[in-house]
Amino acid sequence: MTAGCRLDGHRALVTGAGRGLGRAIADTLAELGAVVHGTSRDPATARQIAERYGTAPLQLDITDIDSFPGLVDDLEDTGGIDLLVNNAGINIPRPAVDVTVQDWDAVMDANLKGTFFLTTAVARNWLSHHRGGAVVNIASQAGLVAIEERAAYGTSKAGLVHLTKLLALEWARENIRVNAVAPTFVRTELTASTLERPDWAAELLSRIPAGRFGEPEDIAGAVAFLLSDAASLITGQALAIDGGYTIR
Fold first, then answer.
1. Over the stretch 20-74, which tens digit does the pLDDT of each residue have?
2. Whole-angstrom distance, CA of residue 49 vs CA of residue 17
3. Edge-to-edge strand ranges of the sheet holding 176-183
4. Considering only CA atoms, which of 51, 90, 209, 73 is closest in space to residue 128?
5. Helices 43-53 and 20-31: crossing angle, nearest 10°?
6. What dihedral angle (degrees, nearest 10) is formed by the CA atoms of 168, 8, 183, 51?
7. CA dist., res. 9 & res. 228, Å (int)
8. Which residues of the chain are modeled with pLDDT < 70?
9. Domains of the chain, first to last
């Protein structure tokens, strides 16, 4: 990356940083010089994240909205943050006719509702301290095009893409940038059950002109760029990192 993508002096919060994509993003931000705070729902994992980055353990359930002000206050007491990566979320793949009310609510609460209220809690702190900041939301190509068995997930990520634009518009004058990335299928622990099915994997690969699935590092580099000063005039955008999946 260019010198403009360095993150020295910045302090980041990455939700869901214990594994997979979240961990790769947090590692990349740390390598680029940022102080990284990472969250997990699991207290043991939260402690491991803290040890990895030399910061305090942060246990967070993205659906526990009442806990967000306290989290932001705790971060402020340790120097505050100026970067936020909304990575925590869930997927419950099912045919649309099999999606239950509980499935729908769980996906929306984590991927859209929780993300919105955490972001506004952080932004409220930035505004009160006249501090700018940058946010990257982890959306999905499923929020840009239709994919089988993703009715709830795709709807939540489409909402997140539009929310990115709405917040970017509202906060642009306050020096707060809000962008999103929309990855294709990425090889992580969470996607293994899908991508290791030969029939399904072959079908998915046939839709990706680049001919491969994503790796966590593919997404992490793009997130770091969007958070950096090299992207200082970019806001309200959803960058598809999809090997061409959504171009046709």
1. 999 999 999 999 999 999 999 999 999 999 999 999 999 999 999 999 999 999 9
2. 7
3. 58-59, 35-40, 11-14, 83-86, 133-138, 176-183, 238-241
4. 73
5. 20
6. -120
7. 11
8. 1-3
9. 3-241 (3.40.50.720)
Catalytic residues: 153
pLDDT score for 200: 84
Q: Which residues pair with 55 in a beta bridge?
A: none
What's at 220, amino acid-wise?
A: A
The pLDDT tens digits of the residues spanning 87-99 come to 999 999 999 999 9
The answer to whether the Cα torsion of 184, 189, 191, 197 is positive or negative is positive
Alpha-carbon gap, residue 31 to 43, rounded angstroms: 24
pLDDT at residue 173, rounded to an integer: 98
